[in-house]
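This section describes the prediction task in plain terms. A model, or a person checking by hand, is given the sequence of a single protein chain and must write out its three-dimensional structure as a string of tokens. No templates, partner chains or ligands are provided. The sample shown here is typical of the held-out split.
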Amino acid sequence: MVKLENICFSYERGNEVLKNITLNIKKGKKTVFLGENGSGKSTLFLIINGLLKAEKGNMYFEGKKVLHGKKNLEELRKKVGIVFQDPEIQIFAPLVFQEISYGPENLGYSKEKVEENVDKAMKEMNIEELREKPCHHISYGQKKRVSIASVTAMEPEVLILDEPTAWLDSRNTKGVLGILENFSKAGKTLIVSTHDTDFAYEFADYVYVLNKGEIVREGKREEVFSDLKFLKGLSLNIPNQVKIMAYLREKGMNVDDYYRFLKDNGL
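The expected answer:
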């Protein structure tokens, strides 16, 4: 779906934020970029969405090289939506329904289509009761949901979310996780950044680990999170599930029984 070859980027000369990034994001998968703040995750996402242009390297979307002409970028952004980490910098309309309507209206959708998409997005995010609410009167968790709805209302094929659980309590984090799982089941390609290893372990199909602008590890979640020494070396927390499974193995207990227990109890 998205392919990058040797992408490099600097905000100022001599200080590379991204260094020879090469990756291949598969359609319909949940891809997570894991790394501490400053590792380059947000910059990488802005390049994938076309908001930034790489200094070196090439990007491909659905097998076609991405060019930075106005028409090319407009087509890319119709298919690749991005939800920023802080909803405060994304939300600008006075009322919630106006915020969610803005994207579809700018894509030239009919009035009926805009209404249909807004209603669907609000239902998916469980914020229908916020429709007429002023955006500055709703909670931070609600603003997160509104910012996601404002992007999904444009029906992107790829949904990029930069730290979607940042500053959320456990209840709101679980809610966002459930919503993203529903998008995945509907066939969306999800690209998510986080430094929350518990979230990453529960959510990801495939993981890229970024450190100082470089991909230092990639693989299926079980492969990445099995190397505890590597995670500790990057000051990344060991996911709680990994700790529990390590304890069970140490005690000679059956890990399959643990998974069965979680499934049977909806955990």
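For orientation: The chain is about 40% helix and 25% strand.
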